[in-house]
Structure to design on (551 residues):
Protein backbone atom coordinates (compact mmCIF):
# COMPACT_ATOMS: atom_id res chain seq x y z
CA UNK A 1 0.00 0.00 0.00
CA UNK A 2 2.81 2.37 0.87
CA UNK A 3 4.43 1.60 -2.47
CA UNK A 4 1.25 2.56 -4.33
CA UNK A 5 1.04 5.83 -2.39
CA UNK A 6 4.67 6.67 -3.15
CA UNK A 7 4.09 5.83 -6.81
CA UNK A 8 1.18 8.27 -6.94
CA UNK A 9 3.33 10.98 -5.44
CA UNK A 10 6.05 10.26 -7.99
CA UNK A 11 3.41 10.72 -10.69
CA UNK A 12 2.71 14.23 -9.32
CA UNK A 13 6.42 15.01 -9.36
CA UNK A 14 6.83 13.67 -12.89
CA UNK A 15 3.89 15.77 -14.08
CA UNK A 16 5.42 18.86 -12.48
CA UNK A 17 8.61 18.22 -14.46
CA UNK A 18 6.57 17.63 -17.61
CA UNK A 19 4.56 20.86 -17.23
CA UNK A 20 7.70 22.85 -16.45
CA UNK A 21 9.64 21.53 -19.45
CA UNK A 22 6.72 22.12 -21.79
CA UNK A 23 6.15 25.69 -20.54
CA UNK A 24 9.88 26.49 -20.74
CA UNK A 25 9.99 25.19 -24.31
CA UNK A 26 7.01 27.34 -25.32
CA UNK A 27 8.40 30.36 -23.49
CA UNK A 28 11.75 30.06 -25.23
CA UNK A 29 10.13 29.77 -28.66
CA UNK A 30 7.82 32.70 -27.95
CA UNK A 31 10.62 34.89 -26.56
CA UNK A 32 12.70 34.16 -29.65
CA UNK A 33 9.77 34.93 -31.94
CA UNK A 34 8.83 38.17 -30.16
CA UNK A 35 12.45 39.38 -30.00
CA UNK A 36 12.91 38.64 -33.72
CA UNK A 37 9.74 40.56 -34.61
CA UNK A 38 10.90 43.48 -32.47
CA UNK A 39 14.30 43.64 -34.17
CA UNK A 40 12.69 43.40 -37.62
CA UNK A 41 10.37 46.22 -36.66
CA UNK A 42 13.28 48.37 -35.50
CA UNK A 43 15.32 47.63 -38.63
CA UNK A 44 12.47 48.14 -41.08
CA UNK A 45 12.95 50.47 -44.00
CA UNK A 46 10.27 52.78 -42.70
CA UNK A 47 12.01 55.56 -40.78
CA UNK A 48 10.48 56.20 -37.37
CA UNK A 49 11.20 59.45 -35.59
CA UNK A 50 12.06 57.83 -32.22
CA UNK A 51 14.80 55.73 -33.88
CA UNK A 52 16.75 58.90 -34.70
CA UNK A 53 15.89 60.81 -31.52
CA UNK A 54 17.40 60.78 -28.04
CA UNK A 55 16.01 62.55 -24.99
CA UNK A 56 18.53 64.20 -22.67
CA UNK A 57 17.54 65.22 -19.13
CA UNK A 58 19.22 66.89 -16.18
CA UNK A 59 21.00 69.39 -18.38
CA UNK A 60 23.34 71.33 -16.03
CA UNK A 61 22.93 75.06 -15.65
CA UNK A 62 25.95 76.96 -16.93
CA UNK A 63 26.25 80.61 -15.87
CA UNK A 64 25.99 82.96 -18.81
CA UNK A 65 24.74 80.25 -21.18
CA UNK A 66 21.19 79.40 -22.19
CA UNK A 67 20.05 75.77 -22.08
CA UNK A 68 19.93 75.56 -25.88
CA UNK A 69 23.48 76.88 -26.19
CA UNK A 70 24.72 74.36 -23.62
CA UNK A 71 23.08 71.46 -25.45
CA UNK A 72 24.35 72.59 -28.82
CA UNK A 73 27.92 73.01 -27.62
CA UNK A 74 28.06 69.77 -25.64
CA UNK A 75 26.73 67.43 -28.34
CA UNK A 76 28.53 69.09 -31.23
CA UNK A 77 31.73 68.52 -29.27
CA UNK A 78 31.03 64.91 -28.25
CA UNK A 79 29.01 63.68 -31.26
CA UNK A 80 30.27 65.84 -34.13
CA UNK A 81 29.65 63.36 -36.96
CA UNK A 82 26.05 62.40 -36.21
CA UNK A 83 24.40 65.16 -34.17
CA UNK A 84 22.10 67.38 -36.26
CA UNK A 85 20.24 69.58 -33.81
CA UNK A 86 17.85 69.60 -30.90
CA UNK A 87 14.42 70.70 -29.84
CA UNK A 88 14.18 72.38 -26.46
CA UNK A 89 11.21 71.73 -24.19
CA UNK A 90 9.37 74.80 -22.89
CA UNK A 91 7.23 75.34 -19.85
CA UNK A 92 4.03 76.23 -21.70
CA UNK A 93 1.40 75.42 -19.07
CA UNK A 94 -0.39 78.74 -19.49
CA UNK A 95 -0.40 78.35 -23.27
CA UNK A 96 -1.86 74.83 -22.87
CA UNK A 97 -4.69 76.20 -20.74
CA UNK A 98 -5.44 78.80 -23.40
CA UNK A 99 -5.44 76.09 -26.05
CA UNK A 100 -7.96 74.01 -24.07
CA UNK A 101 -10.12 77.08 -23.60
CA UNK A 102 -10.01 77.81 -27.33
CA UNK A 103 -11.05 74.24 -28.07
CA UNK A 104 -14.11 74.64 -25.84
CA UNK A 105 -15.04 77.93 -27.48
CA UNK A 106 -14.61 76.42 -30.95
CA UNK A 107 -16.88 73.58 -29.94
CA UNK A 108 -19.60 76.01 -28.85
CA UNK A 109 -19.16 77.97 -32.09
CA UNK A 110 -19.59 74.79 -34.15
CA UNK A 111 -22.70 73.95 -32.14
CA UNK A 112 -24.39 77.29 -32.72
CA UNK A 113 -23.38 77.40 -36.40
CA UNK A 114 -24.90 73.96 -36.87
CA UNK A 115 -28.02 75.08 -35.02
CA UNK A 116 -28.30 78.15 -37.27
CA UNK A 117 -27.98 76.01 -40.40
CA UNK A 118 -30.76 73.72 -39.22
CA UNK A 119 -33.05 76.67 -38.32
CA UNK A 120 -32.16 79.51 -40.77
CA UNK A 121 -34.91 81.83 -39.64
CA UNK A 122 -34.07 81.57 -35.92
CA UNK A 123 -30.97 83.20 -34.44
CA UNK A 124 -29.33 81.79 -31.31
CA UNK A 125 -28.42 84.08 -28.43
CA UNK A 126 -26.19 83.71 -25.40
CA UNK A 127 -25.77 85.71 -22.19
CA UNK A 128 -22.43 87.43 -21.70
CA UNK A 129 -22.32 87.03 -17.91
CA UNK A 130 -20.49 84.42 -15.83
CA UNK A 131 -21.18 80.87 -17.10
CA UNK A 132 -23.87 82.33 -19.35
CA UNK A 133 -26.30 82.66 -16.43
CA UNK A 134 -26.87 86.42 -16.58
CA UNK A 135 -25.91 89.51 -18.54
CA UNK A 136 -27.03 90.95 -21.82
CA UNK A 137 -28.04 88.72 -24.69
CA UNK A 138 -25.99 88.75 -27.90
CA UNK A 139 -25.85 86.69 -31.05
CA UNK A 140 -24.12 83.40 -30.16
CA UNK A 141 -22.19 82.97 -33.42
CA UNK A 142 -20.82 86.51 -33.36
CA UNK A 143 -19.99 86.26 -29.64
CA UNK A 144 -17.97 83.05 -29.94
CA UNK A 145 -16.31 84.19 -33.19
CA UNK A 146 -15.13 87.37 -31.47
CA UNK A 147 -14.03 85.44 -28.34
CA UNK A 148 -11.97 83.00 -30.42
CA UNK A 149 -10.30 85.86 -32.31
CA UNK A 150 -9.31 87.56 -29.04
CA UNK A 151 -8.04 84.27 -27.66
CA UNK A 152 -5.97 83.63 -30.81
CA UNK A 153 -4.27 87.01 -30.37
CA UNK A 154 -3.61 86.21 -26.71
CA UNK A 155 -2.16 82.79 -27.62
CA UNK A 156 0.14 84.39 -30.20
CA UNK A 157 1.49 86.83 -27.61
CA UNK A 158 1.90 84.04 -25.04
CA UNK A 159 3.77 81.88 -27.57
CA UNK A 160 6.18 84.71 -28.41
CA UNK A 161 6.69 85.38 -24.71
CA UNK A 162 7.58 81.74 -24.03
CA UNK A 163 10.03 81.54 -26.93
CA UNK A 164 11.83 84.74 -25.89
CA UNK A 165 11.95 83.91 -22.17
CA UNK A 166 15.14 81.90 -21.31
CA UNK A 167 13.59 80.83 -17.99
CA UNK A 168 10.79 79.05 -19.84
CA UNK A 169 13.23 76.49 -21.29
CA UNK A 170 13.34 73.31 -19.19
CA UNK A 171 16.56 71.32 -18.59
CA UNK A 172 15.50 68.68 -21.09
CA UNK A 173 15.75 68.42 -24.88
CA UNK A 174 15.14 66.05 -27.78
CA UNK A 175 18.28 65.42 -29.85
CA UNK A 176 18.16 64.50 -33.52
CA UNK A 177 20.86 62.38 -35.24
CA UNK A 178 21.52 61.64 -38.88
CA UNK A 179 21.65 57.86 -38.39
CA UNK A 180 20.29 55.23 -36.07
CA UNK A 181 23.87 54.24 -35.31
CA UNK A 182 24.64 57.71 -33.98
CA UNK A 183 21.43 57.79 -31.93
CA UNK A 184 22.26 54.33 -30.50
CA UNK A 185 25.71 55.43 -29.39
CA UNK A 186 24.34 58.54 -27.68
CA UNK A 187 21.36 56.85 -26.03
CA UNK A 188 23.30 53.87 -24.69
CA UNK A 189 26.42 55.57 -23.32
CA UNK A 190 27.25 57.78 -20.34
CA UNK A 191 27.77 61.35 -21.49
CA UNK A 192 29.37 62.99 -18.46
CA UNK A 193 31.83 62.19 -15.69
CA UNK A 194 28.99 62.92 -13.32
CA UNK A 195 26.41 60.14 -13.94
CA UNK A 196 23.57 62.34 -12.66
CA UNK A 197 24.01 64.94 -15.46
CA UNK A 198 23.33 64.77 -19.19
CA UNK A 199 21.17 61.65 -18.80
CA UNK A 200 20.42 60.28 -22.26
CA UNK A 201 17.93 57.63 -23.28
CA UNK A 202 15.90 56.64 -26.31
CA UNK A 203 13.07 59.08 -26.82
CA UNK A 204 9.58 57.59 -26.67
CA UNK A 205 7.54 57.94 -29.80
CA UNK A 206 5.54 61.21 -29.90
CA UNK A 207 2.27 59.57 -28.81
CA UNK A 208 4.03 57.84 -25.92
CA UNK A 209 5.61 60.87 -24.24
CA UNK A 210 4.31 61.85 -20.80
CA UNK A 211 5.34 65.50 -20.87
CA UNK A 212 4.78 66.38 -17.21
CA UNK A 213 7.63 64.17 -16.01
CA UNK A 214 10.35 65.28 -18.42
CA UNK A 215 11.99 67.90 -16.20
CA UNK A 216 12.04 66.13 -12.80
CA UNK A 217 15.54 66.40 -11.22
CA UNK A 218 17.61 63.28 -10.58
CA UNK A 219 17.54 63.56 -6.78
CA UNK A 220 13.80 64.09 -6.79
CA UNK A 221 13.37 60.97 -8.93
CA UNK A 222 15.29 58.85 -6.43
CA UNK A 223 13.25 60.15 -3.48
CA UNK A 224 9.97 59.74 -5.34
CA UNK A 225 10.68 56.12 -6.25
CA UNK A 226 11.72 55.23 -2.72
CA UNK A 227 8.55 56.77 -1.28
CA UNK A 228 6.31 55.08 -3.85
CA UNK A 229 8.00 51.71 -3.28
CA UNK A 230 7.25 51.93 0.44
CA UNK A 231 3.70 53.13 -0.30
CA UNK A 232 3.03 50.22 -2.66
CA UNK A 233 4.34 47.76 -0.06
CA UNK A 234 2.03 49.28 2.55
CA UNK A 235 -0.92 49.26 0.14
CA UNK A 236 -0.37 45.62 -0.82
CA UNK A 237 -0.01 44.27 2.71
CA UNK A 238 -2.22 46.68 4.65
CA UNK A 239 -4.98 47.34 2.14
CA UNK A 240 -7.54 46.13 4.69
CA UNK A 241 -6.97 49.33 6.71
CA UNK A 242 -8.50 51.76 4.15
CA UNK A 243 -11.21 49.24 3.30
CA UNK A 244 -12.09 48.80 6.98
CA UNK A 245 -12.15 52.59 7.40
CA UNK A 246 -14.49 53.07 4.44
CA UNK A 247 -16.70 50.20 5.53
CA UNK A 248 -16.87 51.60 9.06
CA UNK A 249 -18.38 54.75 7.56
CA UNK A 250 -20.64 52.65 5.37
CA UNK A 251 -22.18 50.64 8.21
CA UNK A 252 -25.10 51.82 10.30
CA UNK A 253 -23.10 53.08 13.27
CA UNK A 254 -20.79 55.06 11.03
CA UNK A 255 -23.68 56.61 9.14
CA UNK A 256 -25.45 57.58 12.34
CA UNK A 257 -22.31 59.27 13.65
CA UNK A 258 -21.67 61.16 10.42
CA UNK A 259 -25.31 62.01 9.73
CA UNK A 260 -27.43 61.85 12.93
CA UNK A 261 -30.46 63.28 11.12
CA UNK A 262 -30.70 60.01 9.12
CA UNK A 263 -31.30 57.90 12.25
CA UNK A 264 -35.14 57.81 11.95
CA UNK A 265 -34.88 56.67 8.32
CA UNK A 266 -32.18 54.07 9.01
CA UNK A 267 -34.27 52.41 11.73
CA UNK A 268 -36.79 51.08 9.17
CA UNK A 269 -36.24 47.30 8.89
CA UNK A 270 -36.14 47.27 5.08
CA UNK A 271 -33.61 50.12 4.83
CA UNK A 272 -31.59 48.72 7.74
CA UNK A 273 -31.22 45.26 6.19
CA UNK A 274 -30.46 46.80 2.78
CA UNK A 275 -27.70 49.01 4.17
CA UNK A 276 -26.17 46.22 6.24
CA UNK A 277 -26.03 43.85 3.30
CA UNK A 278 -25.20 46.28 0.52
CA UNK A 279 -22.99 49.10 1.74
CA UNK A 280 -19.95 47.09 2.97
CA UNK A 281 -19.74 45.18 -0.31
CA UNK A 282 -20.20 48.40 -2.26
CA UNK A 283 -17.35 50.04 -0.35
CA UNK A 284 -15.06 47.11 -1.20
CA UNK A 285 -16.07 47.19 -4.87
CA UNK A 286 -15.45 50.94 -5.12
CA UNK A 287 -12.00 50.54 -3.60
CA UNK A 288 -11.06 47.74 -6.00
CA UNK A 289 -12.50 49.74 -8.89
CA UNK A 290 -10.37 52.81 -8.20
CA UNK A 291 -7.27 50.78 -7.30
CA UNK A 292 -5.78 50.77 -10.87
CA UNK A 293 -6.24 54.56 -11.00
CA UNK A 294 -4.49 54.96 -7.65
CA UNK A 295 -1.61 52.77 -8.82
CA UNK A 296 -1.32 54.76 -12.06
CA UNK A 297 -1.08 57.99 -10.05
CA UNK A 298 1.71 56.38 -8.00
CA UNK A 299 3.57 55.45 -11.18
CA UNK A 300 3.24 59.01 -12.48
CA UNK A 301 4.66 60.35 -9.23
CA UNK A 302 7.68 58.07 -9.74
CA UNK A 303 8.60 60.19 -12.75
CA UNK A 304 8.63 57.92 -15.80
CA UNK A 305 8.51 59.80 -19.09
CA UNK A 306 6.64 57.32 -21.31
CA UNK A 307 3.01 56.24 -21.11
CA UNK A 308 4.02 52.68 -21.97
CA UNK A 309 6.46 52.64 -19.03
CA UNK A 310 3.77 54.05 -16.74
CA UNK A 311 1.41 51.27 -17.75
CA UNK A 312 4.08 48.59 -17.30
CA UNK A 313 4.91 49.85 -13.80
CA UNK A 314 1.22 50.08 -12.91
CA UNK A 315 0.66 46.54 -14.17
CA UNK A 316 3.51 45.33 -11.97
CA UNK A 317 2.01 46.97 -8.88
CA UNK A 318 -1.43 45.58 -9.64
CA UNK A 319 0.01 42.09 -10.14
CA UNK A 320 1.70 42.19 -6.73
CA UNK A 321 -1.61 43.26 -5.21
CA UNK A 322 -3.47 40.41 -6.93
CA UNK A 323 -0.80 37.88 -5.96
CA UNK A 324 -0.83 38.80 -2.26
CA UNK A 325 -4.48 39.66 -1.70
CA UNK A 326 -6.32 37.40 -4.15
CA UNK A 327 -4.09 34.33 -4.40
CA UNK A 328 -2.23 34.20 -1.08
CA UNK A 329 -4.97 36.08 0.76
CA UNK A 330 -7.58 33.54 -0.35
CA UNK A 331 -5.40 30.59 0.65
CA UNK A 332 -4.13 31.79 4.00
CA UNK A 333 -6.91 32.74 6.40
CA UNK A 334 -6.83 35.95 8.40
CA UNK A 335 -6.30 39.57 7.49
CA UNK A 336 -3.37 40.77 5.42
CA UNK A 337 -1.69 42.10 8.58
CA UNK A 338 -2.01 38.73 10.31
CA UNK A 339 -0.60 36.99 7.22
CA UNK A 340 2.38 39.33 7.13
CA UNK A 341 2.94 38.86 10.89
CA UNK A 342 2.81 35.08 10.49
CA UNK A 343 5.24 35.10 7.57
CA UNK A 344 7.72 37.37 9.37
CA UNK A 345 7.73 35.25 12.54
CA UNK A 346 8.29 31.84 11.02
CA UNK A 347 11.16 30.24 9.18
CA UNK A 348 11.22 31.04 5.45
CA UNK A 349 11.37 27.31 4.74
CA UNK A 350 7.98 26.89 6.45
CA UNK A 351 6.13 29.40 4.25
CA UNK A 352 5.71 27.01 1.25
CA UNK A 353 4.56 24.31 3.67
CA UNK A 354 2.02 26.63 5.33
CA UNK A 355 0.54 27.72 2.00
CA UNK A 356 0.91 24.30 0.36
CA UNK A 357 -1.31 22.67 2.97
CA UNK A 358 -4.12 25.12 2.23
CA UNK A 359 -3.95 24.89 -1.58
CA UNK A 360 -6.03 21.71 -2.16
CA UNK A 361 -8.76 22.95 0.17
CA UNK A 362 -9.20 26.18 -1.86
CA UNK A 363 -9.64 24.51 -5.27
CA UNK A 364 -13.44 24.83 -5.22
CA UNK A 365 -13.15 28.51 -4.27
CA UNK A 366 -10.87 29.28 -7.22
CA UNK A 367 -13.10 27.32 -9.61
CA UNK A 368 -15.95 29.60 -8.54
CA UNK A 369 -13.67 32.62 -8.80
CA UNK A 370 -12.69 31.71 -12.37
CA UNK A 371 -16.31 31.29 -13.42
CA UNK A 372 -17.62 34.41 -11.68
CA UNK A 373 -14.72 36.82 -12.25
CA UNK A 374 -13.01 35.28 -15.29
CA UNK A 375 -15.84 34.05 -17.48
CA UNK A 376 -18.15 36.90 -16.51
CA UNK A 377 -15.31 39.39 -17.05
CA UNK A 378 -14.71 38.11 -20.57
CA UNK A 379 -18.44 38.31 -21.31
CA UNK A 380 -18.45 41.86 -19.95
CA UNK A 381 -15.48 42.70 -22.19
CA UNK A 382 -17.28 41.64 -25.35
CA UNK A 383 -20.50 43.39 -24.28
CA UNK A 384 -18.74 46.55 -23.00
CA UNK A 385 -21.74 47.54 -20.89
CA UNK A 386 -19.93 50.20 -18.88
CA UNK A 387 -18.62 52.13 -21.94
CA UNK A 388 -22.08 51.81 -23.48
CA UNK A 389 -23.77 53.37 -20.44
CA UNK A 390 -21.12 56.11 -20.25
CA UNK A 391 -21.57 56.89 -23.94
CA UNK A 392 -25.34 57.30 -23.60
CA UNK A 393 -24.90 59.54 -20.54
CA UNK A 394 -22.42 61.70 -22.44
CA UNK A 395 -24.69 61.72 -25.47
CA UNK A 396 -27.56 62.91 -23.29
CA UNK A 397 -25.79 65.65 -21.34
CA UNK A 398 -22.46 66.57 -23.01
CA UNK A 399 -22.52 65.88 -26.75
CA UNK A 400 -23.29 69.02 -28.77
CA UNK A 401 -21.26 68.56 -31.96
CA UNK A 402 -19.80 65.76 -34.04
CA UNK A 403 -16.47 66.43 -32.35
CA UNK A 404 -18.08 65.69 -28.98
CA UNK A 405 -19.73 62.59 -30.39
CA UNK A 406 -16.40 61.32 -31.72
CA UNK A 407 -14.80 61.77 -28.30
CA UNK A 408 -17.71 60.05 -26.57
CA UNK A 409 -17.51 57.09 -28.96
CA UNK A 410 -13.75 56.71 -28.64
CA UNK A 411 -13.23 53.16 -27.27
CA UNK A 412 -9.74 53.94 -26.01
CA UNK A 413 -6.99 51.35 -25.91
CA UNK A 414 -6.56 48.03 -24.13
CA UNK A 415 -6.43 48.50 -20.37
CA UNK A 416 -2.99 46.92 -19.96
CA UNK A 417 -2.47 47.79 -16.26
CA UNK A 418 -5.55 45.80 -15.27
CA UNK A 419 -5.90 43.21 -18.05
CA UNK A 420 -2.38 41.75 -18.10
CA UNK A 421 -2.10 41.16 -14.31
CA UNK A 422 -5.52 39.47 -14.33
CA UNK A 423 -4.46 37.11 -17.13
CA UNK A 424 -1.22 36.37 -15.28
CA UNK A 425 -3.18 35.56 -12.11
CA UNK A 426 -5.28 33.00 -14.00
CA UNK A 427 -2.14 31.46 -15.46
CA UNK A 428 -0.72 31.23 -11.93
CA UNK A 429 -3.87 29.42 -10.77
CA UNK A 430 -3.62 27.01 -13.68
CA UNK A 431 0.04 26.11 -13.17
CA UNK A 432 -0.34 25.77 -9.38
CA UNK A 433 -3.39 23.50 -9.56
CA UNK A 434 -2.36 21.59 -12.71
CA UNK A 435 -0.57 18.97 -10.58
CA UNK A 436 -2.35 19.36 -7.23
CA UNK A 437 -6.00 19.53 -8.38
CA UNK A 438 -6.23 18.99 -12.16
CA UNK A 439 -10.02 19.42 -12.13
CA UNK A 440 -9.38 23.18 -12.23
CA UNK A 441 -7.56 22.98 -15.58
CA UNK A 442 -10.67 22.72 -17.82
CA UNK A 443 -12.04 25.93 -16.30
CA UNK A 444 -8.72 27.70 -16.95
CA UNK A 445 -8.55 26.40 -20.52
CA UNK A 446 -12.11 27.57 -21.23
CA UNK A 447 -11.22 31.00 -19.81
CA UNK A 448 -8.08 31.40 -21.93
CA UNK A 449 -9.89 30.12 -25.01
CA UNK A 450 -12.61 32.75 -24.61
CA UNK A 451 -10.04 35.41 -23.68
CA UNK A 452 -8.05 34.74 -26.85
CA UNK A 453 -11.10 35.04 -29.09
CA UNK A 454 -12.50 38.10 -27.34
CA UNK A 455 -9.31 40.15 -27.01
CA UNK A 456 -8.23 39.26 -30.55
CA UNK A 457 -11.54 40.64 -31.79
CA UNK A 458 -11.37 43.72 -29.55
CA UNK A 459 -7.80 44.62 -30.51
CA UNK A 460 -8.44 44.22 -34.23
CA UNK A 461 -11.92 45.75 -34.47
CA UNK A 462 -12.63 47.87 -31.38
CA UNK A 463 -9.68 49.42 -29.56
CA UNK A 464 -7.49 52.23 -30.84
CA UNK A 465 -3.74 51.87 -30.47
CA UNK A 466 -2.53 54.59 -28.13
CA UNK A 467 1.21 54.09 -28.73
CA UNK A 468 3.73 51.65 -30.19
CA UNK A 469 6.03 50.07 -27.59
CA UNK A 470 7.39 47.30 -29.89
CA UNK A 471 6.51 44.45 -27.46
CA UNK A 472 8.13 46.15 -24.45
CA UNK A 473 5.65 44.34 -22.16
CA UNK A 474 6.89 40.88 -23.08
CA UNK A 475 9.96 40.59 -20.75
CA UNK A 476 7.72 41.35 -17.77
CA UNK A 477 5.13 38.80 -18.92
CA UNK A 478 7.88 36.20 -19.34
CA UNK A 479 9.31 36.93 -15.88
CA UNK A 480 5.93 36.55 -14.18
CA UNK A 481 5.17 33.28 -15.96
CA UNK A 482 8.51 31.96 -14.72
CA UNK A 483 7.66 33.29 -11.25
CA UNK A 484 4.35 31.39 -11.45
CA UNK A 485 6.25 28.18 -12.19
CA UNK A 486 8.59 28.78 -9.25
CA UNK A 487 5.65 29.44 -6.94
CA UNK A 488 3.92 26.24 -8.06
CA UNK A 489 7.10 24.22 -7.50
CA UNK A 490 7.72 25.58 -4.01
CA UNK A 491 4.09 25.08 -3.03
CA UNK A 492 4.08 21.51 -4.32
CA UNK A 493 7.30 20.95 -2.40
CA UNK A 494 5.64 22.27 0.75
CA UNK A 495 2.53 20.16 0.17
CA UNK A 496 4.45 16.90 -0.39
CA UNK A 497 6.59 17.56 2.67
CA UNK A 498 3.45 17.16 4.80
CA UNK A 499 2.51 13.81 3.26
CA UNK A 500 3.83 10.31 3.62
CA UNK A 501 6.11 10.86 0.63
CA UNK A 502 8.35 13.40 2.35
CA UNK A 503 11.43 11.44 1.24
CA UNK A 504 10.47 12.02 -2.40
CA UNK A 505 10.49 15.82 -2.11
CA UNK A 506 14.27 16.17 -2.71
CA UNK A 507 13.51 15.20 -6.33
CA UNK A 508 11.72 18.55 -6.66
CA UNK A 509 14.55 20.65 -5.26
CA UNK A 510 16.48 20.60 -8.52
CA UNK A 511 13.45 21.84 -10.53
CA UNK A 512 13.33 25.44 -9.18
CA UNK A 513 17.09 25.70 -9.75
CA UNK A 514 16.72 24.60 -13.38
CA UNK A 515 13.74 26.94 -13.86
CA UNK A 516 15.65 29.91 -12.48
CA UNK A 517 18.67 29.03 -14.65
CA UNK A 518 16.38 28.95 -17.69
CA UNK A 519 15.04 32.38 -16.75
CA UNK A 520 18.53 33.87 -16.40
CA UNK A 521 19.55 32.38 -19.75
CA UNK A 522 16.53 33.93 -21.47
CA UNK A 523 17.33 37.26 -19.82
CA UNK A 524 20.91 37.25 -21.13
CA UNK A 525 19.89 35.89 -24.53
CA UNK A 526 16.83 37.99 -25.39
CA UNK A 527 16.21 40.83 -22.94
CA UNK A 528 19.00 43.15 -24.19
CA UNK A 529 17.06 43.46 -27.45
CA UNK A 530 14.21 44.98 -25.42
CA UNK A 531 16.41 47.45 -23.54
CA UNK A 532 18.89 48.54 -26.20
CA UNK A 533 18.93 48.85 -29.95
CA UNK A 534 21.67 46.81 -31.68
CA UNK A 535 23.96 48.73 -34.03
CA UNK A 536 25.09 45.70 -36.01
CA UNK A 537 23.25 46.75 -39.17
CA UNK A 538 24.29 49.90 -41.00
CA UNK A 539 21.37 52.22 -41.58
CA UNK A 540 20.85 54.87 -44.20
CA UNK A 541 21.64 58.37 -42.91
CA UNK A 542 19.11 61.11 -42.36
CA UNK A 543 20.31 64.67 -42.97
CA UNK A 544 17.21 66.56 -41.85
CA UNK A 545 16.00 67.03 -38.28
CA UNK A 546 12.81 64.99 -38.05
CA UNK A 547 11.91 65.72 -34.43
CA UNK A 548 10.58 69.19 -35.26
CA UNK A 549 7.42 67.81 -36.88
CA UNK A 550 6.81 64.86 -34.59
CA UNK A 551 7.39 66.33 -31.12
Amino acid sequence: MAGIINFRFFVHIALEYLFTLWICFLLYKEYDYVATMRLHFMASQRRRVEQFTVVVRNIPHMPGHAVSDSVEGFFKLNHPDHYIGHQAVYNANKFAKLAKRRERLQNWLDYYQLKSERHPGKSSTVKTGLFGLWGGKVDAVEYYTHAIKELDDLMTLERQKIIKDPKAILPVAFLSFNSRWGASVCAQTQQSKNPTLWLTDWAPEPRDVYWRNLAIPFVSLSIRRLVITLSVFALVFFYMIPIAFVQSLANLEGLEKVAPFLRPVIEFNFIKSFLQGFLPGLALKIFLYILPTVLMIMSKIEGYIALSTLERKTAAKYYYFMLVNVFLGSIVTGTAFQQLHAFLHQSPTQIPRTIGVSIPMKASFFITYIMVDGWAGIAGEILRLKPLVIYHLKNMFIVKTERDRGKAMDPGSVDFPETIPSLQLYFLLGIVYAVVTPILLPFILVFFGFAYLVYRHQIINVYNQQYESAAAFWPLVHSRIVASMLISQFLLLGLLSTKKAAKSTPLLVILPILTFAFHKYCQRRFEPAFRKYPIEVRYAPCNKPIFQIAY
